[in-house]
Design goal:
This protein is an alpha+beta fold and about 325 residues long. Helices cover about 20% and strands about 35% of the residues. The chain has helices at about 15-25, 85-100, 165-175, 240-250, 305, 310-315, and strands at about 5-15, 30-35, 40-50, 60-65, 75-85, 110, 115-120, 125-130, 155-165, 180-185, 195-200, 210-215, 230-235, 255-260, 265-270, 275-285. The protein is globular and about 55 Å long.
Length: about 325
């Protein structure tokens, strides 16, 4: 049993239409699934990824229409990294963000890589990271119909940063339960705070990395639009996930047990600093119920919700996601 890397990150948006426009038209990702939150079918659940929604490329959003402002702080998933192929692609993105009037922090070096931090229209904390020197988990294949040239496109999820009040509690879970290894540190930009700890799992590299930032000067985050709900990690299949269920229960973490999400199977648990972690299987994938050429164009519902389609769609604001 080995965690393979980052599977997906799920965040919150207040407006599905603006979210769709930003992530497909500005960032050039493909909407690979337009579905609903299976625990609250009144809200959209939008999945953006590479060409076919490969595991490790997927950034998802729950639409909570009344979501308020995020008050950033501790006990949070505080940054989501998006991979690009090389430093040349990162320079392209700096110019693109400026042309689109999207604020960014400029290109800088972090842990031996070039990065470009920026925010979306709702304050989502994002960082483009160059894979120029990266070795490890392979990236995905950028969408060929993207407004971004394919060789400059986003290839998947990179590191995920966790901000917590007591780093050792989270690091213990990552290392002793999930099999991550500490591979180094880099300095915090906040005076008086300890270095940020970098951990990787499986084949390693940007697609299999979690960074743990300890902050003793912050209150807990109050999430809203632009905040991250949970991070999911890759496991091979359902049989392996069932073994992870046993391991998590042995550690007595609050957990969901095995949950069938149809496109993958999942296990959710909270580690001691309150971060919600999901373990998700690599398959069966997003092409299970849609033609790969037309992913994300219609509202997709798993079989256990299909009988309620009329009622579910009546509560959703129509969202045209047809690729022209």
């Amino acid at each position: 049993m080995q965690i393979k890397g980052i599977h997906h990150v799920s965040a919150i948006t207040a407006k599905a239409k603006e979210n769709y426009d930003f992530y497909t038209k500005d960032l050039g990702l493909r909407l690979v699934k337009k579905s609903v939150n299976q625990d609250d079918t009144s809200m959209y659940h939008l999945f953006y990824a590479d060409e076919i929604g490969n595991p490790g490329t997927d950034l998802t959003f729950f639409e909570i229409k009344r979501a308020g402002h995020t008050y950033e702080g501790n006990n949070s998933i505080s940054a989501t990294y998006l991979r690009v192929a090389n430093d040349e692609a990162l320079k392209y993105w700096k110019n693109r963000l400026e042309e689109l009037h999207i604020n960014h922090a400029g290109i800088s070096e972090q842990f031996g890589r070039n990065i470009l931090p920026f925010r979306d229209h709702e304050g989502q904390r994002l960082v483009l990271v160059s894979d120029e020197t990266n070795q490890g988990v392979a990236g995905g294949i950028p969408w060929k119909k993207s407004p971004v040239p394919q060789d400059k496109g986003i290839t998947g999820l990179g590191p995920v940063k966790l901000t917590v009040p007591v780093a050792e509690k989270t690091i213990d879970v990552l290392k002793d339960l999930l099999g991550f290894e500490e591979v180094g540190t880099y300095p915090s930009t906040i005076h008086g705070q300890r270095d940020i700890v970098v951990l990787q799992v499986g084949e390693g590299g940007t697609g299999a990395e979690i960074q743990v930032e300890e902050r003793t000067d912050l209150p807990p985050e109050r999430p809203g639009r632009g905040s991250v709900h949970h991070v999911a990690l890759r496991v091979e299949d359902k049989a392996e996930l069932e073994e992870w269920v046993k391991k998590v229960k042995e550690r007595r973490f609050p957990n969901s047990g095995l949950v069938d999400r149809y496109y993958f199977q999942s296990l959710y648990f909270r580690e001691p600093n309150g971060i919600l972690i999901e373990l998700a299987t690599d398959g069966p994938g997003f092409a299970t119920d849609e033609d790969p050429e037309h992913l994300g164009e219609a509202v997709a519902l798993p079989p256990f919700l299909e009988g309620n389609r009329e009622e579910i769609e009546a509560h959703l604001t129509p969202l045209d996601t047809t690729v022209k």
